[in-house]
Specification:
Elements (H helix, E strand, L loop, with lengths): L1 H11 L3 E5 L5 H7 L8 E6 L3 H8 L3 H7 L4 H13 L5 E7 L14 E8 L5 E6 L5 H22 L3
Parallel strand pairs: 1-2, 1-3
Antiparallel strand pairs: 3-4, 4-5
Length: 159
């Protein structure tokens, strides 16, 4: 999937940025594991703490206070911030509860919010709950889902 994302970005002549919390840079790593990815990958933001989300991506303290780090609103602001703070034309952001602890009834372990921003389009967000997976499984499934979202967005749009 990472190869397909790189090829799709390269075909459109655009660069990509990642904004990652629960995956800690795994999406950027999946892309940069492939030789030649520097023509497409501009940068990856690992914003594990709320302070990093605010400092590096411009996520609003009000958003974090009102909705929390694991929310639609935060994922959208992370995706927007990655575009605004890079040379990329598309960004993917992830924030979630990888576990094994940290979950709640409202935000269970396995909940991940994804934000995607594509220059010239309204950012979009969606959530997934990866049930029955351990921490590594949630993180791996998050990487695959994020790459799939980027690929689908590029397939559906023309630049």
């Amino acid at each position: 999937m990472a190869r397909a994302v790189l090829a799709a970005c390269e075909a459109r002549g655009i660069m990509l940025a990642t904004a990652e919390s629960c995956t800690g840079g795994m999406i950027a790593a999946a892309l940069t594991d492939i030789a030649g990815s520097s023509t497409v990958v501009d940068r990856g933001f690992v914003t594990y703490s709320n302070e990093a989300k605010m400092d590096m991506l411009g996520v609003s303290a009000n958003t974090l206070d009102a909705h929390g780090a694991v929310s639609r609103e935060t994922a959208l602001e992370m995706a927007r911030g990655a575009l605004e703070n890079s040379r990329a034309s598309i960004s993917i952001a992830v924030t979630g509860v990888a576990g094994p602890g940290g979950g709640s009834a409202e935000k269970p372990v396995g909940l991940v919010w994804f934000g995607l921003a594509l220059e010239g389009h309204e950012p979009v967000a969606q959530s997934r709950i990866f049930e029955g997976l351990d921490r590594a499984g949630v993180r791996s499934a998050t990487v695959e889902t994020a790459l799939g979202m980027v690929l689908e967005a590029l397939r559906q749009t023309t630049n």
